[in-house]
Amino acid sequence: MISRGTTFTLTNWAINSTGKSVAFSYECSRFGPFTEEVSFPFEARALQPTEEMSRLLDLLHIALGVSYYKAAAAEKIELPVSTPAAIEMARLLYTEGLAEFFVRAGLDYPVATTFRTKSKNYKTAKSHAPEPSDIECLIAFGGGKDSYVAKAISDQAGYKAALCSVTLSPRVETILQGTAPEPLIFLHRKLDPKIRTLDPAKAFNGHIPITAINSLMLVIFAKMMGIRQVVFANER
């Protein structure tokens, strides 16, 4: 039986020089550092580190971290944010959001996990809203029938919508595009390759709350592009 790790820390994130991708970094007391890169389409407007965007990136930092946290399921999580809403989102994602993972891994549930936070200074520059896009809403497209239902409802309501997918590999992009009724917009996650090489005898694995990650990525992309709405069908 693998024991839980000690500490998992969300260290920092950094926007690259083009403004089209962001590197999110973590530190695990058992397996060391991890870094994931999220990238947006070439056509996207550059990310600006305003306070509003920085807070959204903080939330994505929290959500992406579950992919690496689960390797050791540390008993203490250190967050670089202190707003009540962000802390509550983190608590939900890393406890209830990983409930199936904890049970299948044979770990105690409800989870005894503590959260430690520290304050963070944000840029105070005024946010400049991008020019409104001619696209009125982004629809998350995963290839299932709920995606088609969301698109049909949007069309019936008279919205000009675009279909958007979050992917981890070109192969998945090819499959998704083959099922889509129109060209897709792709947002990309590049996992830290170390996560795939961990010894299964020493690391946990299991399901994560992927909808939270994809939702936040679409919201950030919509803010970059001046798109006012994101539509995410979730089976029901």
| Fraction in helix | 25-40%
Number of strands: 9
**Which residues sit in consecutive blocks of at least 5 with pLDDT less than 50?**
none
Described by strand count, sense and barrel closure, the largest sheet is: 9 strands, mixed
Give the spatial strand order of the biggest sheet: 5-4-1-2-3-8-7-6-9
Query: Roughly what fraction of the amino acids lie in strands?
Result: 15-25%
N-end to C-end Cα span: 37 Å
Series of H and E elements: EEEHHEHHEEHEHEHE
What best-fitting shape do the alpha-carbon axes yield?
globular
The pLDDT mean sits at 93
Q: What is the overall number of helices? A: 7
Rg measurement, Å: 18 Å
The computed structural class is alpha/beta
Question: What can you see in these coordinates?
Answer:
The protein has 236 residues and is an alpha/beta fold. It is 31% helix and 22% strand. It is built from 7 helices and 9 strands. The chain has a 9-stranded mixed β-sheet, with helices on both faces. The protein is globular, with a radius of gyration of 18 Å. The mean pLDDT is 93.
Blueprint of the fold:
Layout: E1 7-15, E2 21-28, E3 32-39, H1 51-64, H2 66-69, E4 76-79, H3 84-94, H4 99-104, E5 114-117, E6 137-140, H5 145-156, E7 161-167, H6 170-179, E8 185-190, H7 210-225, E9 229-231
Parallel strand pairs: 1-4, 4-5, 6-7, 6-9, 7-8
Antiparallel strand pairs: 1-2, 2-3, 3-8
Attribute tags:
alpha/beta; 236 residues; globular; single chain; 7 helices; nine-stranded mixed beta sheet; 9 strands
